[in-house]
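It would be a great kindness if you could assist me with a short task in structural biology. I am sending you one protein, given as its amino acid sequence and as whole-number tokens for its backbone shapes. I would ask you to consider whether the tokens describe a fold that such a sequence might reasonably adopt. The full record is reproduced below for your convenience.
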Amino acid sequence: MSLQFLWYIPNQVEPGHRGDDVVAGHNSLDTLTAQARALEEHGWGGALIGTGWGRPDTFTVATALAARTTTFQPLIAVRPGYWRPANFASAAATLDHLSGGRVLINVVSGRDNLAAYGDSEGDQAHRYARTAEFIRLVRRLWTEENVTHHGEHFAVTGSTVVPRPAARGERRHPRLYFGGASAAAERVAAAEADVQLFWGEPLDGIQERIERLRRLSEEAGRDLPPLEFGLRITTLVRDTTEEAWADAEAKVAAMAGGGIVRDPNRHTAVGQQRLLDLAGRGEVLDDNLYTAPGRFGGGGAGTTWLVGSAEDVAKSLRKYQNLGITHFVLSDTPYLPEIRRQGDRLLPLLRD
């Protein structure tokens, strides 16, 4: 199975995300395009573009970047509730058609300011049941005609999406990524997603979850191709091991002293809490998984870091690959220089 190497593009209103360089026009089209084109030039497949109310609209940013690039694949984060299934299926199919099949989708069920855009949700069971129905209906709208569906959360009658998503070999529509570590989230992934994304947990935790998701897929009677797995993590790469650890420790010291703004999206969802709990097992787990950032405000992919030379980090990522990870979403700040550094030094080792 081929490997996918993606990065992260920070569509943020405020500059300096996770210690990024603070520059004028940090979220201008020219700045973001420079990052997307650098990804093309330095061996990356594309980038995750996050979502959340109070940030630039993710789909609009992805569309603009797709129009200014040729191979860049936007992994567009979307939320059921912000989008209704038919509207989203049509928008994504249109962009996929116009871009020649470059769209990837990350369905997000985590917390957001739902009331600000007129959404609401019940308990966790309700939230993930809605997500499962959203994914199932979107997939039908991309692959069937005259779709009629009257479910608990969504309804369409005689709905046909045109144009259709671009066909590329066996690919019939954009790949659907999904995250979440709760039991409810894992049931959705096992039955409905194409790729389950994990945060940067130690190898034993990832192995346990992969084995459980495969069992859940069998129990659910999954009628899709086998679930694939991805890793979203910060990778701090320097010329030498010593230099990498010195820089990592300096960054954490700056976080501890308030020099880097606390991640505003840091929540204690099940997956996030699993990461925060890792610090209790030690400051460095496996060979070079650094847990200290989580103690000082790092959230999501910034909670744990793989630290070292390109050879060190490649060795660790290959261990995840041996467990079954085939999709890697990496990043470090400042984003643009690290696109180049890690594209030139890390990716060739992983592709070897």
